[in-house]
Amino acid sequence: MDKFTTLSGIAAPMPLVNIDTDMIIPKQFLKTIKRSGLGKNLFDEMRFNQDGTEVADFVLNKPAYRAATILVAGDNFGCGSSREHAPWALADFGIRCVISTSFADIFFNNCFKNGILPIVLPEAERDLCMKDAEKGANARIEVDLEAQTLTLSDGQVIRFEIDPFRKHCLLNGLDDIGLTMEKAGAIASFETQLAQARPWV
Amino acid sequence: MSSNASKPRTLYDKIWDAHLVDEQADGTCLLYIDRHLVHEVTSPQAFEGLRMTGRPVRAPEKTIAVPDHNVPTTEGRDKRIDNEESRIQVEALDKNARDFGINYYPVSDIRQGIVHIVGPEQGWTLPGMTVVCGDSHTATHGAFGALAHGIGTSEVEHVLATQTLIQKKSKNMKVEITGSLRPGVTAKDITLSVIGATGTAGGTGYVIEYCGQAIRELSMEGRMTVCNMAIEGGARAGLIAPDEKTFEYVRGRPHAPKGAQWDAALNWWKTLFTDEGAHFDKVVTIRGEDIAPVVTWGTSPEDVLPITDVVPSPEQFHGGKVEAAKRSLEYMGLQPGQRLQDITIDTVFIGSCTNGRIEDLRAAAAILKGKKIKDGLRAMVVPGSGLVRAQAEEEGLAQIFIDAGFEWRLAGCSMCLAMNPDQLAPGERCVSTSNRNFEGRQGRGGRTHLASPAMAAAAALTGHLTDVRELMAQEPELA
């Protein structure tokens, strides 16, 4: 997995609440057996007309935001389907950080497996980021995961919270499976106990 | 395998404790997974990961695969799937199941169906288990008092390789439905009404335990409908404590324990309830008598109203929901103040892991019996599994649907997410017994109104959103 340490980039505002994973990557793009190449279909039905032309006023189609690496989003981002294609599409497009007041549980987990940092902020602070993002390409937000800070374009610093284990994994690009494999002994002894206690499992 | 045994615990606490392999100082836990369900859409990359690292599936006997999302629901699909990408995904699952030696129900098998219907039907899902699947509606299995939730593809690979999941414990939430439901009100109306009350993020960070008289009075099918949509309320999982109904449902199923193991299992299952005095971090109570047959009007499952209501105005909402409601109304082609019952429809879809079980088909057939659907309407029943389909044919339900003008399809996810050819056209308006009314969910530009099977059947007869109680009043024997 790609490490996440610091990021300085253009933030795109998406104030709509309840942006679901069907919006992030519609189902017709779930038929792939690969992880890569989904960025071109990110937000497909919001971003493109049915004839394939761009929807001019969709935020990521505006010149100022085409190279965005951060999204500032409305409440409950990533709700709905568990499809990991959503973070795959975001990462493939170049989005490495999403800022909101809340995320749906499965999407939130999936981000950390793909080097994307989802940041939860209180509403007032998310709104400050939103205002900053609305300034366009000149408003770059800086993210420092180690320090757990966001620096807005005017220099204002916002601190964010993150689970220490997840932070450690992101900073070091650690593979969960590798970490768990180190506990193979504990899993095996659990299975031995399980075979005694609940043999029907 | 259990800790904190002296302190009063919730059902969730008990299942959690019984599956804890390891706990770090910061509360990050390794949880053992008893059943891993797999389908064709969210698993290919996980199996590819195993191949690349040379890892086997740790517990193939606890892993169950079935193709459901992509499969056509028309005859001949066992010979050939026309859509090339869908065919490749289904063939990849065939090959992965074979190569890694996991339990498999291919499309040619009568037991094939939606993964969340097959698991309980075959007795793979049992009380007190941990059940995961790369699908958010895994919450369905919580109806058995199993801790069940959706995971992403990286986690699918993690479970395949280690039979565990890295987790942090959620908080406990209780949703109590007191009293009894009124006639015409079903499990779907309960679960939608709860989401309407708490919002789609109301359960975020929680595992919900549904309880109360109205929940106890539901059949296992109804309980599965309730838990299925826990995810739409934002919860990691929904749970219902197992009882005699649960045990009777499970008894004798192909993969349920037998003989002495059954007795041992039953003894443990009977301890799976929330202790008196156990702590819930959030409690929501709804009177069963207050729940009406409901429909959704917007593009979020929280956009729920009783069928007797009118389309709301965006100004009735607060914050970001104002803009979201405007966008929803435009997408749905609706005007504030319009009576919900005046909304005319083009299509009815009965099926999905939410409402594709035998009881759902019975409820819809009871409304449709001896009647015809509205002229020009497109109506489709997609049973949740081949066995549900066979049972419905045996009970004469299939003939009722066919006589009424419904298409009688083969099992799969179908129009719930429209990955197969069953899709809405732009602007096409559908009453659907599925779980999501998101923009484009049932086809780009398609307009979805979520409802119960009985409400969907009522709408099929009249051609507009309809209060099923009015049809029942005409024919009291249906009540």
TrEMBL record, chain A:
Its EC number is 4.2.1.33. One of its GO terms (biological process) is L-leucine biosynthetic process. Pfam families: Aconitase_C. Pathway: Amino-acid biosynthesis; L-leucine biosynthesis; L-leucine from 3-methyl-2-oxobutanoate: step 2/4. It catalyses: (2R,3S)-3-isopropylmalate = (2S)-2-isopropylmalate. The keyword Lyase applies. Residues 1-123 form the Aconitase A/isopropylmalate dehydratase small subunit swivel domain. One of its GO terms (molecular function) is 3-isopropylmalate dehydratase activity. It comes from the Bacteria. Keywords: Amino-acid biosynthesis, Branched-chain amino acid biosynthesis, Leucine biosynthesis, Lyase. InterPro entries: 3-IsopropMal_deHydase_ssu, Aconitase/3IPM_dehydase_swvl, AconitaseA/IPMdHydase_ssu_swvl, IPMI_Swivel, LeuD. It is an enzyme of class 4 (lyase). One of its GO terms (cellular component) is 3-isopropylmalate dehydratase complex. NCBIfam families: leuD (TIGR00171), PRK01641.1 (NF002458). Catalyzes the isomerization between 2-isopropylmalate and 3-isopropylmalate, via the formation of 2-isopropylmaleate. Heterodimer of LeuC and LeuD. Belongs to the LeuD family. LeuD type 1 subfamily. This is 3-isopropylmalate dehydratase small subunit. It comes from Rubellimicrobium rubrum. The gene is leuD.
Automatic annotation (TrEMBL), chain B:
It catalyses: (2R,3S)-3-isopropylmalate = (2S)-2-isopropylmalate. One of its GO terms (molecular function) is 4 iron, 4 sulfur cluster binding. Pathway: Amino-acid biosynthesis; L-leucine biosynthesis; L-leucine from 3-methyl-2-oxobutanoate: step 2/4. GO terms for biological process: L-leucine biosynthetic process. It is an enzyme of class 4 (lyase). [4Fe-4S] cluster binds at residues 353, 413, 416. The keyword Glycosyltransferase does not apply. The keyword Amino-acid biosynthesis applies. Its EC number is 4.2.1.33. Residues 13-463 form the Aconitase/3-isopropylmalate dehydratase large subunit alpha/beta/alpha domain. It comes from the Bacteria. Heterodimer of LeuC and LeuD. Catalyzes the isomerization between 2-isopropylmalate and 3-isopropylmalate, via the formation of 2-isopropylmaleate. Belongs to the aconitase/IPM isomerase family. LeuC type 1 subfamily. This is 3-isopropylmalate dehydratase large subunit. The lineage of its organism: Bacteria, Pseudomonadati, Pseudomonadota, Alphaproteobacteria, Rhodobacterales.
